[in-house]
């Protein structure tokens, strides 16, 4: 009898212990990453754009190309090309943030599709090609929107989630796709050649979360479900993700959004001077100018009414630093100025005949 009572008690004890264990497993499944995805993903949209291309019909193309002749204009036809990118709603009014290159070359925005399947009309509020950002506004009610975080205080190694709509129409499902990784690096300054000398791919967030075609413009989210970047590009020889993804920091995007909402465009920051790279100067000319350093940019022309002249910059000065970054090429100055906004202060480190000085000027708007 005692043996039976002991056995029953043991069974009851095991059964009681099994309940908390199962609860722990269930809780571990709905971890911070899962909850962050649940919070942010409803605000992610597919941006459906239409591009009209002029093409010669194949039967005529082969003929004219065989004889190396220009195609006659009357044989050119328009062909509709549909493509899809990603974006995310940032407020209750339906403003959508995405990459400019998602819209570049598009003839029209056909619609934006929410994760719940709704197709909404959308209009362009403004674009900033240099920072590769665009702002749209969708027409709809009760729109979900993502909470924006901060990109300044990121930790190397913290978890992040890339959300978007990879491969577009190949996956006919409005639900976004997620991939998880970590912040691999921050403040990455990519070569100007990556953006063909025009795109400001500076101070980027690097992540190993998979970013695939169609993910561009989607949010990079932290473990709290806050957007800390905009998925923008990958480095890959194959075109697929290899763990080298880059996102535009949300702190910069916030300021671009404010400009686009207020002015419908990004106001052009202006400094008012031109430079030549010291490394490209003839040695004799450099000596005549009293240049004793082997890097930086020589000021060769400056307007008297420009912000930098008012701050003390003069022809013959060599700029060796700007906004805390070393200057090697003129592109370093160009990108640093464009990374600032009208009204911001920028510091210059200069070398004037061997004497080092620090100047500060306020960025003004380029007179349209």
Q: Kindly name the structural category.
A: alpha+beta
User: Can you identify the CATH superfamily of the domain at 159-263?
Assistant: Trypsin-like serine proteases
Strand order of the largest sheet: 5-4-1-2-3-7-6
Largest sheet: 7 strands, antiparallel
In short:
By secondary structure, this protein is of the alpha+beta class. The chain has helices at 2-29, 32-40, 58-66, 100-103, 250-263, 283-288, 307-310, 330-338; strands at residues 44-55, 77-89, 95-98, 108-114, 119-120, 122-128, 133-138, 159-164, 177-188, 204-207, 219-222, 227-234, 245-249, 269-270, 273-277, 297-302, 318-322, 325-326, 345-352, 355-362, 364-365.
Question: How is this structure best described in words?
Answer:
By secondary structure, this protein is an alpha+beta fold. Among the domains are: 2-28; 159-263, Thrombin, subunit H (Beta Barrel); 269-365, Pdz3 Domain (Roll). The chain is 23% helix and 35% strand. The chain is built from eight helices and 21 strands. The termini are far apart. The mean pLDDT is 84.
Index terms:
368 residues, alpha+beta, Thrombin, subunit H, Pdz3 Domain, 7-stranded antiparallel beta sheet, 6-stranded antiparallel barrel, 21 strands
